[in-house]
Amino acid sequence: MKRLPRLDLNLLQIFDAIYTKGGVSAAASHLNLSQPAISHALAKLRAMLDDPLFIRQGNRLVPTGTARAVAEPIHAALRELVAALDGAGSFDPAQSTREFRIGIRLAGEMSRFPALASRVLAEAPHVRLTSTAFRRRDLVAALANGDLDVAIDVDLPVEDRLCREPLGVEPLLVAARIGNDRIAGTLDLDRYLALDHVFATPRPHGPGIEDIALARLGLQRRVAVRCQHAITAWQIVAKTDMLCTLPRSHVRMLQDIWPMQLFDLPIAVAQSSSYLYWHRAVQADVGLAWLRAIILEVMREE
């Protein structure tokens, strides 16, 4: 085991930059250091750890097994140290120029991000706010390495390294074109099944929550159109006699653009809960604590 007094924190920061940015040049640019300085630091680390850490393959530096083994603990430790130092000071939203990166799935950005961005920028006009998509299998890593500060998603199995807070549940509503002669002001299950449906999902395959509930009863709706975004589905419904089932938050946004007939879903479904996720390493970061409080407030209001 290496004695901590021999370790230079700057060397760990340089290792972390090389690993996360993918090379010496990118690390030098990220840290505002010269490439020779980065290379010198890497040579010292290699000698200290008795391992090459990165091996050149063509134009890429590929991490060794040792580098991969220590990369996440080093990154997490550095983030926790930065968060602790930030937490020892203060965060002034009115003056901050920080960038906050919020992970939001494509299906939820339209309904959630506008209200959130409006509230954040009202209190912190100089910050930068980024909405970014993510793969669920990469969520822990993205929160650990700082690619995301927080993430909003459905109920997921989480590790001890992640914290989460519930954002609540919302019902599904059914939209139909105003003037659709096949609906006489009400929508029962028989009529719901008799009409064709548009299904909005970024997934190329798989059923929706409503399809799962129908299948349990031995029933099935006909999905005539499958598209990637709720806006597209809404436009299709506006020009056809098809139906579209969407979360209430989506419907509220789209109803202002193109009014529809709205109905309660005529079948009981398992309510989908959403959660706010973040990494334990940034628990003490007062800036992120401020951001989390705003997200919780806005999402629960919605």
Automatic annotation (TrEMBL):
The record places domain HTH lysR-type at 7-64
The molecular function GO annotations come to:
DNA binding; DNA-binding transcription factor activity
Q: Which UniProt keywords apply?
A: DNA-binding, Transcription, Transcription regulation
Q: Does the keyword DNA-binding apply?
A: yes
Instruction: Give a Pfam family name.
Output: HTH_1
InterPro entries tied to this protein = LysR-type_TF, LysR_HTH_N, LysR_subst-bd, WH-like_DNA-bd_sf, WH_DNA-bd_sf, YidZ_PBP2
Q: Identify the CDD domains for this entry.
A: PBP2_Nitroaromatics_like (cd08417)
On the tree of life, the source organism's domain of life is Bacteria
UniProt KW Cytoplasm keyword: no
Q: Which family does it belong to?
A: Belongs to the LysR transcriptional regulatory family.
What's the protein here called? Transcriptional regulator, LysR family
Instruction: Give the species.
Output: Sphingopyxis terrae subsp. ummariensis
